[in-house]
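> example.struct
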């Protein structure tokens, strides 16, 4: 009888030990599984690159959009011309203005520094007919910095290229009204909007500004362009599209443009 009880005890011991081994093994496999998952995550992080890259790709214009074209008149009395979006974007080339920007002395105040860029561009207005003998010729920024002459699109593309070269964190766009290209930059709570005719509007956005207050500021700047360039009294200019070397946006009305411009501050 005693022998029998000892046998049962032994079996019970064996059973408990086996169970422990199984549990330990289970714990071990969980540890391996977690280890493998951590390893996959680390490999993905190291070789997959920073996550911002995905965001950047999302904002990049897709090929389909690049193939679209836009009808535009670059100057009053000019002919309607078809431009591909790619052609427009290809005329903003910040790298061509790097040496020019490096040669200037800046104060780090964007308004003052933009005036310095304009001053040092030493740009004189000359129609494409006068300069190149053709109705419409879009110079590259490199050409403009050599010729120091041209018309509205030449100045605007070159200025925006230079502004991006000055500080690539600035959100700078060529903004197209009917027959007039202008330069708009947003940086550090400030909108600076200018054109080749020495207009320069700027508005600072404060932390207490409501959405409505920012809308009013954008509308004020829009109205100033309408007042300056309107053909008939009371006529409002419309913003048609905006672009830089990385982005192209088209607007169906000025409200759409204002909402887009407001979002630049996000
Ligand atoms: Ca031109």
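> example.seq
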């Amino acid at each position: 009888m005693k022998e029998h009880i000892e046998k049962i005890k032994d079996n019970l011991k064996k059973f408990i030990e086996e169970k422990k081994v199984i549990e330990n093994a289970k714990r071990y496999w969980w540890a391996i599984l977690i280890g493998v998952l951590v390893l996959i995550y680390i490999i993905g992080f190291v070789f997959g690159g920073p996550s911002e890259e995905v965001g950047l790709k999302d904002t990049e214009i897709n090929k389909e959009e690049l193939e679209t074209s836009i009808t535009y008149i670059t100057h009053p009395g000019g002919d309607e011309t078809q431009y591909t979006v790619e052609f427009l974007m290809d005329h903003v080339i910040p790298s061509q203005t790097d040496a020019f920007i490096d040669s200037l002395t800046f104060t780090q105040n964007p308004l003052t520094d933009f005036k310095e860029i304009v001053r040092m561009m030493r740009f004189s207005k000359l129609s494409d007919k006068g300069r190149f003998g053709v109705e419409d010729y879009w110079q590259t920024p490199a050409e403009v910095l050599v010729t120091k002459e041209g018309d509205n699109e030449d100045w605007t593309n070159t200025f925006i290229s230079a502004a991006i070269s000055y500080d690539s964190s600035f959100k700078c766009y060529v903004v197209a009204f009917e027959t007039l290209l202008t330069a708009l930059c947003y940086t550090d709570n400030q909108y600076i909007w200018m054109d080749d005719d020495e207009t320069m509007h700027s508005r600072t956005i404060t932390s207490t500004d409501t959405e409505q207050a920012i809308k009013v500021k954008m509308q004020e700047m829009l109205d100033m362009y309408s007042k300056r360039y309107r053909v008939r009294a009371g006529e409002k200019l419309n913003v048609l599209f905006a672009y830089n070397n990385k982005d192209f946006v088209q607007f169906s009305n000025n409200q759409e443009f204002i909402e887009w411009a407001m979002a630049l501050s996000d």
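> remarks
The chain has a mean pLDDT of 85.
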